[in-house]
Every structure is written in C-alpha cells, then in structure tokens.
Amino acid sequence: MRFALNFLEHRWWRVAFLVGAALLLANALLVGCAPVPVPTSDATPTPNTTATATKPAVSAPVQPSPTPAFPEGGSIVVGVVGAASLEINAMPEFLQSAVFASLLTVDPATGALKPGLAESFQVSGDATTFTFHLRAGVRWHNGDALTADDVVATIKAFSDPNFRGKPATDFGPLTRVDAPDSQTVQLTFSEGYCPALTSIGTLSVLPRAVATSASFPHLTPAQMIGTGALKFRAGNSHAFTLDRNADYYRGAPGIDSWTLQVYSDPAALRAAFAAKQIDVMPAAAAEYAPVKSIDGANLVSTVAPEMLVLLFNADTTTLNDGRVRQALGYALDRSALLNDVAGQGQLVDASTLPGYWANDSGIPRYSYDPARAKQILADAGWRDAGDGVLRKNGKPMRLELWTEADDPILEPLAFRIREQLAALGIDAVMELDDRPGWVTRAFDHRFDLLLLSRKVPLDPDQRWYWQSDQNAKGSGFNFGSYANPRVDADFDDMARVGACDAGGRAALLADVNRTLVTEAPAAFLFAPNKYLVTRDRVAGLQPSPFAGDFWNINAWRVRP
Asked: Which are the contacts of 237, defined by CB distance < 8 A and separation ≥ 6?
C-alpha cells in the first residue's frame, strides 16, 4: 500500500520527479517563478523562543530475526510489488541489490559509508578529487576480473548527458573519471561536492561491455552480470530465478536457489504469502494490520527511510511568526499520533532518522506542553477571550490543513492533528485532495499546514527541502518558503568540507537541525516502520533504514 508522497532528496530525483509530474499535471508546475516576498505578521522583530533541550529517546537497534543452526542449501521465494523490468534503475530493489555491488557499502545500523568493491578511498583536501582503490580478487559472475575500466565505464554511462533511463545518481559537478591503473579509479570535480561520495559510492557497478552496450540502461537477461551475492539465471514478465554466487567477496550465500516473484499490488502480494506461495515479502507501515493477521507471518521490523512532517507555510502571515510555529510544536502530542498507528514507528526530533551516524544527541526537542503553547501564543498576541477561540486583533486563528485523501496513514492522522489544535483554540480546517491535486498544491505553496511523508536521504545533504534557493513555486521542494542565511551557508559548506570529513559534515548538520528546531518551519513527528514478513523456515533477515531490506541476503538461511 502506498505511503504518501516520498518527496525527493537530491537533484537527480528532483529532475526525474518533475518530468513525471509535468506529464501528469500538464501545466500545473510552473518552473522558474521568482520567490514571493515573505510577509511579516508584526512591525516589530519576532523574538526567538527556544525549544526545551531534553535527552532524546534512544532508538532501538535493528533487530535481526533469530538465526538457528539451519544447514546451508535449500531454496527460497521472495515476493515484491513492482514491475519485472530489467532497466538498471527501475528493476526491483531485490534484483538490483542481489546481482550488483557498489564501490562502497552502507552500515545498516548507522548509514555510514564502508568499503565495498573499493577496499579504501581518499578525498582530497579541497573535496574535488575522489580516489577509490579496488579490492583484489573480485570477479564478475562470468568469471572475468573486476577492473578499474569497468568502474570508469559505469560512471561515464550513468553520467552521460544523454542517459535514457531513470535518473538515480547525483554526479554534481563531475568533470572527469580516470583509471590510473587497473585497480584505481579517480574522479575529478570542478568544485568540492561531498554528496557525490554517497551517490556515486553506492552506484551499481557494471561490466564495461554492459555499460557501453547499445541497449544500456535496458539490460538483456544475458547482460545481468554483476559481482553481487546472486547470479541471474532466467526471468519473465512476473518472475526471476537466481543462484548463489559461491565467489561473492562478502561470503557465499547459504541458500542455493532463489526465486523473485513480482506482483502488481500489495493485496496480491499478501494473498500469495497467505497461500504459502512465497516465503518473504516487504511491507510498509500502512500494511501492519492486514499483514499481522496472516497466519504464520513473522514481522522483522525497522524504521523506514522516511518521516511524517507537518510543514508550516511561511507565506501565511500567521505562520510567518516563529513564535506561532514553535507553539504548534508544543501543541502536538506526537506520542498520541504514533499510538494511532499502533506504535509502529519511532518519534523523531529533527530531520534525520534515529541511529543515523551524523545525529547530535544535544538537539533540542519539543515535548507535549499545551500550557506552554498557549503562553507563547499569548505573547504573540493570540489570546482566548473566554470562548475557547484564539484571536488577535479580533480575528480568530484559522489555518487550512491539507493532506492526501484516502492515504491510510496521513488522512486519519490529519484529523487527529486537527483535534489537537482545536483543543488549543485553533480552527484547523481539514482539506483533502487526490494525489495529483495535492502534489500541485504542495508545489504551488497553496496551504497553511501540510501533512506529508518525506524521504530521508542517506547523505546529510537536505538542501532541497530547506535552502532558500529551492523556494521556487512550481519546481522547488522547499514548499514552506523557509529561508535562513545560516542554514543556506551550512549546506553550502557541507558540500565542500575538507576531505569530506565526516565529523565536519556532522557538525554542520547538527547546526542545521538546531536552527530548524528553534525556528520550526515544520513539526517533525515520527518515522514509520517497515517490515520483512517471513515464515518460520526463514532466518537471518535484518532490514535496515539505511542499507535496505536485502543487504545481507548472503546471511539468510532456510530450514530444509
């Protein structure tokens, strides 16, 4: 079941989304509009009200399923929703992660980058040169040795301006890619651009012959050659078969034979699981109730790489006052909202996920404190005259709350948020629209409050959501017209930290999050859970919000 709109975190996703949105919404997306001047609510400067700094909740680690001493061997059937495509960036996640590998891997517990096909890498002091040293002895599924020429050809093919597939990698100002020798790859950028270390480092590497073929990025079955845990055997319009790669550099998988079944929708996938036609399937938070009721279903959970956010539109005069936005943060009972989805998620206090490597435990957070919310609003001129309604200069506070109609999580939560704001004396008028209309409204900034689900990027760079130059109606993802010079500078600096130092980038992200919490352009609610649903015969599953659901399939086992 679809879970809201995963607003996209990097420019390559933005381009892809806008192309699709333009086809869907015709002329609704107006590219290149100048930012609208932000009105002020008072003639006097707005003082800051600092959120209460308390110790944030500690997130639970990713919980793997038990791994009994099952013998190696056997077979397994995995089911997913999607299309049985062999386009490299459009194929099912399982297929891509099982067949192909990347220069770098992702720590499943923290999201930090780790060695992959590259056993080490260096970044120059000015962050304009990345050098990767390939791991020795890695072989393609056809037995050929992995060389730097393969990596160079892959990067050139994906970064070609005429690339004809689904964009999935942010190359930034990449100007050159070379192979100084057979085991070394060097990337050169016209200026420092650290986000590319994540995006290029996690790119699927292909054999040179495949990356330079006329069909690329659409692969034929014979071109499904990688260095991953599984070897592609065959496929058709709804299923793929794969075999274990005994030479996989991270350790040979323990299961011999694999089948991937592709279904058109979540209901069909659940029906197949209930009928015992598949052994493992992914599920989203919105599917928790129907999935947990399936006989024999075990749920292995972690948080999804997304979060629910209530966005405040600074173009709305009332919400342009930071005190009002802060008061709304104290007015929301986030624990009650999480309980409304059966507790299937984790509260978040800022724009990053629990456990993320760049999190700062000292980030302030908003507790549920309606009394404090009322006091802050009173200080801003919004007072209750005795009838339970907040007014300023005789005008009641009335805000339009928009979300996507019929979304199984967003719509019910929006009603609950309206109730919580009404208890404070705020008239939050519920407004619903279908997906195309709601997307158009978000891009055009035609809302006061917007409840949405946002994708959380793997890299700390979130400029697309918060930087002032993304406040472009019709095209930018800064839907709330947020602007702060310090945040702008932090993101600019984060892109070119010396040697892309992790500590330096984390410090800048912490500064961004402190500013976001204090100025409250949004209320961060919670990250929903995601699941791998499995039968008792399967063990070793360990889904991750950072590394994905299938990063450790070589550790999976099945009971014969």
From this structure: 84
